């Protein structure tokens, strides 16, 4: 028994004629007749007396048609409920964001979302990519802003923008006076990474053509997770960093950062949800708010190379230690 079959018997009861009912249901008359016959055979009851003109329901058929009407009304109510839920711009939303993006995007995002969805309460959690993906799958988070693609079939990604990487150099670096940065052979051992930010580090190693971080900075180890700390290490001439462009939003005149030549290495930033997430309108509002609050430099077209992380040998090896 299907919803469509119930619609057919209700239409037949209202029209009392196969051809007119078929026209109302936008189906061929033979198709409607076959579906009625299948339904009657399934339940073992004749719903209509075909010997009477006009077509007349049987006694039990009348009761079945009345129940069908009730079921169809309830189905419509469910559909209306789902539509309202998808379009609801209020309530609570648990939002996660990667720590290499949070300090720079969240202040802009909060201001934009106050105007776009003033009745939504956002609970924001900053964490690393692996934890955010787990929290999405378990329902601890509703939406995550992160670098994609994740390669996770249980998650749905809605790309927002492509964020270029830039080189952050100290004043003594051989490329310090150049317009663009080009990787130097000696830079590979000077690259500064972040502790436990495996997806971010994997992207940096990809840009530098490295598969492992084992030979980087062997003379000291550190446990930091802040791009701002990386910048200070660079200023102290303890290495060089590759950082996302939003992290220099307030340093556009600084001579310490250098753009790459095209195709520019970028990370794709997306809104990521589980496959059961239903608030589509809110997702659209978030996407629009983030795009609108971005600096113009990130909205321009340019030749780029998207840097992945989920298929990096470094990432797979690093995560396996903690799984």
Task: Tell me about this structure.
The chain is 40% helix and 20% strand. The mean pLDDT is 87. The protein has three domains: 3-86, Winged helix-like DNA-binding domain superfamily/Winged helix DNA-binding domain (Arc Repressor Mutant, subunit A); 91-161 and 268-298, D-Maltodextrin-Binding Protein, domain 2 (3-Layer(aba) Sandwich), CATH 3.40.190; 164-265, Periplasmic binding protein-like II (D-Maltodextrin-Binding Protein, domain 2). It contains ten helices and ten strands. The protein is elongated, with a radius of gyration of 30 Å. α5 (102-116) packs across α9.
List the helices and strands and how they pair.
Layout: H1 3-15, H2 18-24, H3 29-43, E1 48-49, E2 56-57, H4 59-86, E3 90-98, H5 102-116, E4 119-127, H6 129-138, E5 143-148, E6 155-168, H7 198-207, H8 227-235, E7 241-244, E8 257-259, E9 264-274, H9 280-293, E10 304-306, H10 313-320
Parallel strand pairs: 3-4, 3-5, 9-10
Antiparallel strand pairs: 1-2, 5-9, 6-7, 6-8, 6-9
Shape: elongated
How many distinct helices?
Answer: 10
Write down the Rg: 30 Å
Q: Low-confidence stretches at least 5 residues in length (pLDDT < 50)?
A: none
CATH class of the largest domain, anyone?
Alpha Beta
What structural class do helix, strand and pairing data support?
alpha/beta
What distance separates the N and C termini?
47 Å
The CATH superfamily of the largest domain is known as Periplasmic binding protein-like II
- What is the number of E strands? 10
Order of helices and strands: HHHEEHEHEHEEHHEEEHEH
Largest β-sheet summary:
8 strands, mixed
Mean pLDDT across the residues is 87
Oligomer: single chain
Total domain count: 3
Strand content: 15-25%
What's the CATH architecture of the largest domain? 3-Layer(aba) Sandwich
- CATH topological fold name of the largest domain: D-Maltodextrin-Binding Protein, domain 2
Helix share, percent: 25-40%
């Amino acid at each position: 028994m299907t919803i469509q079959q119930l619609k057919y018997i209700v239409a037949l009861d209202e029209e009392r004629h196969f051809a007119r009912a078929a026209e109302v249901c936008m189906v061929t008359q033979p198709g409607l007749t076959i579906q009625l016959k299948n339904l009657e055979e399934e339940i073992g009851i004749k719903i209509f007396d075909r010997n009477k003109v006009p077509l007349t329901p049987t006694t039990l058929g009348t009761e079945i048609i009345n129940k069908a009407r009730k079921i169809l009304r309830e189905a419509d109510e469910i559909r209306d409920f789902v539509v309202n839920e998808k379009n609801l711009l209020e309530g609570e939303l648990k939002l996660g964001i990667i720590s290499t993006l949070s300090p720079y995007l969240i202040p802009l995002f909060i201001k934009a979302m106050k105007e776009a969805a003033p009745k939504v309460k956002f609970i924001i959690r900053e964490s690393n990519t692996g934890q955010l993906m787990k929290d999405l799958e378990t329902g601890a988070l509703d939406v995550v802003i992160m670098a994609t693609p994740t390669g996770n079939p249980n998650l749905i990604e809605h790309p927002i923008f492509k964020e270029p990487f830039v080189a952050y150099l100290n004043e003594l670096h051989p490329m310090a006076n150049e317009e663009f940065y080009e990787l130097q052979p000696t830079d590979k051992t000077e690259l500064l990474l972040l502790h436990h930010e495996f997806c971010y580090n994997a992207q940096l190693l990809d840009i530098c053509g490295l598969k492992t971080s084992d030979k980087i900075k062997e003379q000291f180890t550190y446990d930091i997770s802040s791009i701002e700390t990386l910048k200070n290490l660079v200023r102290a001439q303890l290495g060089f960093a590759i950082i996302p462009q939003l992290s220099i939003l307030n340093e556009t005149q600084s001579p310490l950062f250098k753009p790459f030549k095209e195709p520019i290495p970028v990370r794709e930033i997306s809104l990521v949800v589980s496959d059961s997430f239903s608030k589509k309108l809110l997702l659209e509002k978030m996407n629009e708010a983030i795009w609108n609050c971005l600096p113009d430099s990130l909205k321009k077209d340019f030749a780029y190379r998207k840097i992945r992380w989920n298929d990096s040998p470094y990432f797979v090896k690093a995560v396996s230690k903690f799984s």
